[in-house]
């Protein structure tokens, strides 16, 4: 059994209430930080832990915190990104539903470290019931003196608010989130300036994912060095993985970042293997935006090494033969799934969610969707395949925010690894509507 | 003052100048096309991505190149910066792609569009685009709507530059105009069909780079290139009264604000001047306006070199 730092008590009855959470060691990190540490010492501890952002980009959290501008007389803000809308990702939901106090505790400790006196949890509109769960937990925290004025007599004040969005994936992009929090349309801002300098209401702001903030709790309780002992290299600590698709045991798992992909998929402790004993066809290891891997690149890298559940190993081989850990949305496809259909489904999502500000993403995502729709429905042409790759390439890197890249990557990767399946859709117009292609062949290694 | 080199041409500009404005100061073919940036509208730019350039050297202090193409209208120059505009195939390819993206949902109804001849999308397609499109789907269409008595919104032609939104935000006291929806289904809208009733609302027509917002008092009256643009002014209690009147013989067909060579207005005019003063006696005519744009309007004084077929 791997160690669990976040979900250890998730199944304890009543853990969503203050009494039970406190009985299981809750709010110790706040006590420790406020009573015995300076804000900078908290930041230093997070740096030592090697914690990397769990929202997708994997940027070192301690470093991000130390970039926060601290001009005199200007408030600073911490915003928790609970917009979780990436297809395949549902870990933050689980955490907030089960142990809301863990997030609240993390918010208090982190806000203290950053010197923020007002903090926000920005949550996707579709998680409407979780808003009430969090608000209840916040009310309990206020009632027990963990929020409000002069917390624990330390002189530190903090107010914490939950702010639901209106159901837009783009509001998970940190600057769109800030715009939305300000009550505006959720359009990503043009960077620079970065939020660390000018964020919410033009003040220095840190935006962190739910899981990132929750991880601060064990880091402060046990020390950054202890945390950094878990995992491999720069992938320290534990990571929540949302496992879905054709596996025996879909769900949210907390893993130490030192297990292999093979273990994760096939061990009974985690996914429990492919459903119905079928063969694995493909895997999207980090949410819909990351490149898809064909069956022969999932458990081994192109160089033949064991693929591990770490940032580095999943990215091994770059985009040619690797992928990304992303937000940990781990989707498994068995041999009966259609990659063209899956790519089309993802494209529909991005076309629908593009904010529409910049031309390549606004027009390109819609175009990709239409061409994929035609291919999936047996109406495609051979030239469509190169057209898709070309349109994707022309969106990538030319947009305001990374949603454009996120829309382009799954398409490019699917064509890179599953071209023969796309061609089959063009050649077998009727068959492609009736059955699926099965596994693609593994390219013969060039000698 | 920082020195920047654009396509090999070095120029010294004021601190904080963007690459686009530096290129405009230097002039010539390296000036990036700009479909959304508008210098007099705060916050504009960054969206259309036609002005992308490659920064091959960040600055004297930090010479690292920038990893991606950048929007020149948003990126300030640094001392010693080196920029590639038309000299780099990555940039010209990106501009051609953006042009293609802007055109895929555009109706290409130039023959019946009032903007023809002074449309920035036409210019962009001519200068940076390809002659054919690979798009084979039905184009997005919208119903035309009248925004009040003077302005027609033909959303189908809109390229989502947001200029009209910034203009109404910044020039008119109460914004009743904005964007609803997302992605390629986003649209310009007036709040529950309320008409835009501000003294300065007519300026949206001038900032619109395409024929999405047109003058209802001028619609289909004439092709702009048959008219003579004349600088004119009048004593106006509301605005500067400095405008351009577009004449055919003795008759004023339409009134617009004065645009510079990049199509930008620096003195916005009021609706009375624009829509109500169509009598020659309302105006003091200063003389012919030199339209310094290589478009069909200026065919009378066209520079031959711009006419070579590519
Ligand atoms: C289109 C888009 C959607 C995003 N959605 C989320 C999200 O739902 N949750 C999240 O934590 N980060 C999301 N991000 C990443 C955030 O911009 C940001 O990097 C993150 O919240 C930083 O937190 P971290 O450093 O703790 O990972 C998204 C980014 C993009 C471009
Ligand atoms: S890349 Fe897409 S989502 Fe991001 S700003 Fe541009 S249009 Fe909006
Ligand atoms: S209507 Fe014209 S000015 Fe307004 S966003 Fe569309 S193209 Fe731009
Ligand atoms: S002019 Fe720079 S992005 Fe539009």
Written overview of the protein:
The complex is a heterodimer of chains A (447) and B (310). With 447 residues, chain A is α/β, with parallel strands linked by helices. Chain A has three domains: 18-229, NADH-ubiquinone oxidoreductase 51kDa subunit (Rossmann fold, 3-Layer(aba) Sandwich), CATH 3.40.50; 232-334, Ubiquitin-like (UB roll) (Roll), CATH 3.10.20.600; 339-441, Up-down Bundle (de novo design (two linked rop proteins)). Chain A contains 18 helices and twelve strands. Chain A has a five-stranded mixed sheet with strand order 3-4-2-1-5. Chain A has a five-stranded mixed sheet with strand order 9-8-12-10-11, covered by helices on one side. In chain A, a hairpin with a 4-residue loop joins strand 3 (148-151) and strand 4 (156-164). Chain B is α+β, with helices and mostly antiparallel strands and 310 residues long. Chain B has two domains: 3-100, Ubiquitin-like (UB roll) (Roll), CATH 3.10.20; 105-288, 2-Layer Sandwich (Alpha-Beta Plaits), CATH 3.30.70.20. Chain B has six helices and 14 strands. In chain B, strands 2-1-5-3-4 form a five-stranded mixed sheet, with helices on both faces. In chain B, strands 13-12-11-14 form a four-stranded antiparallel sheet. Chain B has a three-stranded antiparallel sheet with strand order 6-7-10. Chain B is globular. Residues 296-310 of chain B have low confidence and may be disordered. Chains A and B meet through helix 14 and helix 15 of A and helix 2 of B. The site of one iron/sulfur cluster (SF4) has 14 residues of chain B, from helix 4.
